[in-house]
Design a protein that fits this description.
- The protein is an alpha+beta fold.
- It is 26% helix and 38% strand.
- It has three helices and four strands, in the order ααββββα.
- The chain has helices at 3-8, 11-21, 69-72; strands at residues 23-30, 33-40, 43-50, 56-62.
- A four-stranded antiparallel β-sheet has the order 1-2-3-4, with helices on one face.
- The longest helix has 11 residues, at 11-21.
- It starts with a helix and ends in a 9-residue tail after the last helix.
- The mean pLDDT is 91.
Length: 81
């Protein structure tokens, strides 16, 4: 699925597609939100939820690696590398 086709889906269908075809990469918190990052067929999708809630408020979709910056800053490699 292309990023354009994914964006055209209803959010419920986007969520189902992420569950079936997305690879969960990372999680983080921003303000009062829980964010989860997925890799999906050539693009990334970030789900936003109110902290502690199950319902997704919105899904941010992007392709450029610059969107990964907040996640990459949290990566810690083992000391022996």
């Amino acid at each position: 699925m292309t990023i354009t086709a994914f964006k055209a889906l209803h959010q419920r269908c986007q969520t189902e597609h992420l569950a079936r075809h997305g690879t969960r990469l990372a999680e983080r918190q921003e303000d009062s939100f829980d964010l989860t990052l997925y890799a999906v067929e050539g693009f990334y999708a970030e789900t936003w939820r109110s902290r502690g809630e199950e319902q997704i408020l919105f899904i941010h979709v992007f392709q450029k690696p610059a969107g990964l910056g907040e996640y990459l800053a949290r990566v810690q490699l083992p000391a022996n590398l």
